[in-house]
Design brief:
Length: 320
Amino acid sequence: MNLTPIFEAAIPEMSRRQSATLGDRTSYIGSSDVAGCPRKVYLQKQYPVLPQVSTLLKFARGHAAEWLLEKIFTAAGAVYDTQVEISHPKLPLRCHIDFLFYQPDGLHVVEVKSVSGIPDAPYPQWEDQLQYQLGMLRLQYPKGDISGSVLAVDLNAGEVHQFSGYRPDEETFQYLFSKALHLLDALNGMVEADPCPSLLCGLCSYRGDCPAMAMPVVPLPAEVEMVARKYAELNQTKAAAEKELKSLRQELIDYTGGSFRGRCGELDLSVSTVQPSPSVDAALLKQLFPDVYTQVLKPRYGYQRLEVRRSARQELATAA
Ligand code: SF4
């Protein structure tokens, strides 16, 4: 039985049904829109394209994580709602809160992020998304305690990490609110949506003609261009090798468990476990004890950053 046609037909349909709970996302500005690049969000809303099946499958991983967490929170007897929609009283601005906990001392918002590998610190987009939700919730409930956290879930590794300590921050909310208004203006044809470059530009489908990505043309000596080309090629090979290494590593550890030493043919295989240890949450320290934070800062040595890759225009031309 060939399952490929089933995947190709069913995954887009499943994704459409799951997204239906969020309403027509082209008709309002949501929290993930506000946290993202305005130009990219504008183009996604104006010219929506269905992502590839592989991307939709990755999105489904997020829904799977939320489904699992729902079972866990229910088993724990927690009092909460899921996918809570908060709407602005006058403007087409909304947000959907993954989990809203009702605690004796107030409300707690949880934004879930499904990841492959838990980062050391939350990404700024995650924090912006959460801050926007906290701000919208504050508009709805002007009184009472409101807090929030980002829950990063790595289903492959079976790891969960809560980045906590967030409270509504009026200054951040006003900044995000102005971004939302800018997007509304862009969608109403009053201004052009601003590009906002970030690490995610590498994954952006609208990179090819993005003004923020425009580079001045500088002719290089032939030998320097050759070295740059070689560097870009090796870097691409390295990225592919690292991706494969990560999945092979997981397969091996799934077999050996956290502790193993053994020789197999010409290979010595050894696995050990580094126990979890406490570390300082710099973002929380800065938020709770700003004076202490400035006292413990130390200078970081600078270095030269080199980035060489095929231009987005070149990639588009090759793909065409
Ligand atoms: S390339 Fe970066 S700055 Fe340009 S639209 Fe995409 S995300 Fe925005």
